[in-house]
Specification:
Rossmann fold, Rna Polymerase Sigma Factor, Chain: A, four-stranded mixed β-sheet, 11 strands, binds nicotinamide-adenine-dinucleotide, binds magnesium ion
C-alpha cells in the first residue's frame, strides 16, 4: 500500500498531537505532509523536527516569520507558509487524500469546507464548522464524494454502531429508533446552580476524564459541547433532535449507542482516549493499533447513566432550539458561545453568564437562510458583535 499524505489542520492542539501520535506508529501507511497552527511557534518547530512535513502553516504572519527562520536555523526542509489562504490550499491539495480537521472553532470553517469540497477523506473533529454550515457542508461533501468520518468520540461510536454499509450524510436506516448520545456531565455535574456562579476557568478546564483544549473543556462544563454534538449528530446522521437522547454517563466508557426497532442497543466502549477514533478514521474500514491501553472493566466497576438537568445546564436546550429554528441560528449560537467562553476564560464573566449571553443573542437577532458561506459568516459576525456588547 502506498503511503498516504495527511494534512493536519490544528496540528499543535490536543487532537492534532494525538493524530501525530497515531501516524508515527504507522510510518509505512501515513506521512504528516502538512501541519498547520495559529501562533504556537515552539510547538510547531518541535513537530517539524519530529515529523518532517513538506509544509508548515502559521496563520499568524509574525509567527510564520519566526518559524521560518528557526526552521532554517536547524536545517530542516519544511516550507513555511503564512496566513489563512494556505489552510484552504493545503486542505484541497492534490497530494493529500486525508485531512484531519482539528482547528478549534469557527476559524476551522473554510479549510474544513475546502476539504469536503475537494472530495477528501475528512476526519471531522472540528464540530463548530458543521454546526455553522450544516446543510452547505453536507451537500458539498455529497457532491464531491468526500468521505466523512466523525472523530468526535460519540459520533465515531454511533458510526461504528450503524450498519457497515452506512455512510455519513445518508438518513440512518428506518430500523434505527434512537441515538443515545452519552456525555460525561463535565466537572460540575453535581454542583448546585448557586455554586456554578462562582466557579472559575481553571476548575472548568479540569475535565474528569478527557484531556482537551480549553474551549471544548469549558463547553463540556456548560454542556454546550453536548448541544453542539446534538446538532452535529442531526447533520451527520440526518435525524431530528427528538431522535437523539442525551445520557449523562460520568465514566466516559460507553461513547454512545444506537437503539434498533427489535430492542437491540449497540454500544461502542473504550478508554477515553482520542487516539481510538483517530485511528479508526485514518484506517477505516481497516483497524490499526492506536497505542491505547486496554479497557479494564473490572477496574471501571460500574457504568451509570443520568438524565441531563436543563435547569443548571441550559446550553443543551439552547442548541436544540437553534437547530429547530434552522437557517443561521446555529451559526449565531456557535459564535455567541465562542465569545462568551473566551470572556469566561479571561475571567471577565461568570460561568452562568455563558448561557445567558447566548440566549440573549439568539433572542435579539433573527435567523436568515444559511444557503451561502457569506450569509453564514455575516450571521457569525453579527452574533459576535452582539455577544461582545453583553460581556
Ligand atoms: P486545541 O485548543 O487543543 O487546539 C486547537 C488547534 O487549532 C491548535 O493547533 C491551534 O493552533 C489551532 N487554531 C486555533 N485558533 C486558530 C485560528 N484562528 N486559525 C487557525 N488555527 C487555529 O483544541 P482541541 O481540543 O484539539 O480541539 C480541536 C477541535 O476538535 C475542536 O473543534 C473540538 O471541539 C474538537 N474535538 C476535540 C476533542 C478533544 O479531545 N480535544 C474531542 C472531540 C472534538
Ligand atoms: Mg465529543
Amino acid at each position: 500500500m502506498a503511503i498516504q499524505n495527511v494534512c493536519i489542520l490544528g496540528a499543535t492542539g490536543s487532537i492534532g498531537k494525538n493524530t501525530l501520535s497515531v501516524i508515527s506508529q504507522h510510518p509505512d501507511r501515513y506521512r504528516a505532509f502538512a501541519l498547520t497552527a495559529n501562533t504556537n511557534v515552539s510547538e510547531m518547530l518541535g513537530l517539524c523536527r519530529e515529523h518532517h512535513p513538506a509544509f508548515a502553516v502559521m496563520v499568524d504572519e509574525a509567527s510564520a516569520i519566526a518559524l521560518r527562520s528557526q526552521i532554517k536555523g536547524v536545517g530542516l526542509k519544511t516550507e513555511v507558509l503564512a496566513g489563512e489562504g494556505p489552510l484552504v490550499e493545503l486542505a484541497a491539495h492534490t497530494d493529500v487524500p486525508i485531512v484531519m480537521a482539528a482547528i478549534v472553532g469557527a476559524a476551522g470553517l473554510l479549510p474544513t469546507l475546502a476539504a469536503a469540497r475537494a472530495g477528501k477523506r475528512v476526519l471531522l473533529a472540528n464540530k463548530e464548522a458543521l454546526v455553522m454550515s450544516g446543510a452547505l457542508f453536507m451537500s458539498a461533501a455529497e457532491k464531491s464524494g468526500a468521505l466523512l468520518l466523525p472523530i468526535d468520540s460519540e459520533h465515531n461510536a454511533i458510526y461504528q454502531c450503524l450498519p457497515s454499509d452506512y455512510r455519513c450524510g445518508e438518513t440512518v436506516p428506518s430500523s434505527v429508533k434512537r441515538i443515545l448520545l452519552t456525555a460525561s456531565g463535565g466537572p460540575f455535574r453535581t454542583h448546585s446552580y448557586e455554586s456554578l456562579k462562582s466557579v472559575n476557568a481553571e476548575q472548568a478546564c479540569k475535565h474528569p476524564n478527557w484531556s482537551m483544549g480549553q474551549k471544548i473543556s469549558v463547553d463540556s462544563a456548560t454542556l454546550m459541547n453536548k448541544g453542539l454534538e446534538l446538532i452535529e449528530a442531526c447533520w451527520l446522521f440526518d435525524v431530528s433532535p427528538s431522535a437523539v437522547d442525551v445520557h449523562i454517563h460520568p465514566q466516559s466508557v460507553v461513547h454512545s449507542m444506537v437503539e434498533y426497532n427489535d430492542g437491540s442497543v449497540l454500544a461502542q466502549l473504550g478508554n477515553p482516549d482520542m487516539r481510538t477514533p483517530i485511528a479508526y478514521g485514518l484506517a477505516w474500514p481497516e483497524r490499526i493499533d492506536a497505542g491505547v491501553s486496554a479497557l479494564d472493566l473490572f477496574a471501571t466497576k460500574e457504568l451509570t447513566f443520568e438524565r441531563p438537568d436543563a435547569q443548571r445546564f441550559p446550553c443543551l436546550s439552547l442548541a436544540s432550539q437553534a437547530f429547530e429554528q434552522g437557517g443561521t441560528a446555529c451559526a449565531m449560537l456557535n459564535a455567541a458561545n465562542e465569545v462568551a467562553v473566551a470572556a469566561f476564560l479571561k475571567g471577565n464573566i461568570g460561568f452562568t453568564a455563558i448561557p445567558d449571553i447566548i440566549s440573549r443573542v439568539l433572542d435579539t437577532l433573527s435567523s436568515n437562510e444559511a444557503d451561502s458561506i457569506e450569509s453564514i459568516l455575516l450571521a457569525d459576525q453579527e452574533a459576535r458583535v452582539q455577544a461582545s456588547r453583553l460581556v
